[in-house]
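[job 0412] stage=fold_complex status=start
inputs:
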Amino acid sequence: DAGVTQSPTHLIKTRGQQVTLRCSPKSGHDTVSWYQQALGQGPQFIFQYYEEEERQRGNFPDRFSGHQFPNYSSELNVNALLLGDSALYLCASSPPTASTEAFFGQGTRLTVV
Amino acid sequence: GNSVTQMEGPVTLSEEAFLTINCTYTATGYPSLFWYVQYPGEGLQLLLKATKADDKGSNKGFEATYRKETTSFHLEKGSVQVSDSAVYFCALSRTTSGTYKYIFGTGTRLKVLA
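[job 0412] stage=fold_complex status=done
writing structure:
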């Protein structure tokens, strides 16, 4: 079992650019959540996808958007990048049965210069 | 609102010392509580969890008890090893209308010296 996989592992972008991060959930999982972890901080919830719909959203601007595909994989898009968007972006997946346990990927380290 | 507060680090211990990392939470209802560990350059790994009051989660010598009366979920280990050096995050999760999200503390860095 490959677990939750994210790509790329590292990324450097310039202010104002757009970025797309990708996540493949653990086999059998249908719910994908995204978190932003700034340096020295705990992860902050961005949003959650289920059945290709955004089901819940944290306190992040509309520059952050996402998508879930029929195979449950997901993308996180960030437009008009700011220096403050530099962080580790974590994807978490969970199974369709009633459970609060999520499995996290290794993250994508985004640096905005 | 829901929140998690954990002790600030870094915590530096000698090998075989006793570890306690404090965690308290604020939440309505009955959240599930978790400890996650993050090794350098990696994502989060679930260390242990407890889903109701008085439950004790345990794994790899670590344990934590869900104390509703004190709204706490302190992490303990009787004898730490150098390999336990990492950042530890306390988190809560509540299910609302079939959805849930995690709320994390700011993390506590543990350094164990040989």
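[job 0412] summary: Chain B touches chain A through 24 residues (CB under 8 Å).
[job 0412] exit 0
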